[in-house]
Amino acid sequence: MELSKSKMTKTSVSPSKVLPLSEDELRYKDQLEKKFGNPLDRVRKSSLAKILLIVIAALLIIGGGAVYYFNSLFSAPQKQAESEVFVVSTVAEQKDIKDKLLSQGFIKNAWAFDYALTKTDSKIDAGGYRISKSMDAWTLAKTVADKPALVWVTIPEGLRKEEIGERLAKALGWDEKALHEWTYTYTAMDYDHLEGVYFPDTYLIPTDENGLDAANRLRRRFDEQFAPYMTKFLKQDVKWTTALKIASIVQREAGGKSDMPLIAGILWNRLLKNMKLEVDATVQYARDDRDELTTGFWKPITVADKEIDSKYNTYKYAGLPPFPISNPGIDAIDAVLNSEETDCLYYLHDSNRQIHCAVTYEEHLQNIKNYLLKGGENE
Length: 379
Fold this sequence. Notes:
Blueprint: H1 5-8, H2 23-36, H3 39-74, E1 83-88, H4 94-103, H5 110-118, E2 127-132, H6 137-145, E3 150-154, H7 161-172, H8 176-186, E4 202-206, H9 211-235, H10 240-253, H11 260-272, H12 280-287, H13 330-337, E5 346-349, E6 355-358, H14 361-373
Antiparallel strand pairs: 1-2, 3-4, 5-6
């Protein structure tokens, strides 16, 4: 028996024909939603929670990375490193110092170090600092903002050793006992090193250096600078101690580098003629006192000073003083070796420190009249 096509066709239900829920079904549905919530709301809330967790996790990662990066800017360039002396010159600008720290590998980031330094409320002074590449920016900033471990000390040409000692004492914090040891012990250990060999220069000296080490430091510098002249003086049959005595006088008497060879030549002329040198600077040294209100040991001499009974008094005794009267620089030493050939035996300086020499005493008296008495200038 065949079924008709109408009987074999599936019956489809139109949405419009779906029956609405009964009141009992609606009440049951409300009860389920109250108890378990709306399934769609649960899905939405679950998705929002997942998104929120992802966002929080991302923010933590980003924030943690930022903190790590920020801290790394202040960290030490190396885990372990030896201590080094970092030198800051007397003319260095603050920016140049920071650039030098960066280029030499002591800091990782210039901004981070600058920020750490501002927290010290200080700046970096000239001198030497014992620092290490294992220091972080905070430690390094604190170290260089403090007093340097080494300080610059400048010794001008022509000072007595007492004056040099005073400069060292001030820079290194010596007490009276240490200064006394410098003057009467460490610079008086042998005759050739009583005066003249404490070379004028600019030194970088540890702040804890004692008088003996400081004296050795200055004598070593003298040996280094004088070494090329030693053989040259010997070739001229001039003892180095003799050359140094003359150089010490030239250093005190000269108005500048330009007139040093002329003064040296005049001194040589007087020595070769066995004339008294009659140099004021030697009397100033012989007087061995000071006037703090004027020029210390080097205040102008008086007529009475010329009568001081001392081998250093070249108005009273012929020849050179027993030892140098100052610590000369290399220009004065060179002037003694390469003195100007002249017939002059006398010299003076006018008020502008210009030198005028004379062959005879009469000419010298005329120079005194022309350059000193008219204007009241000092020699």
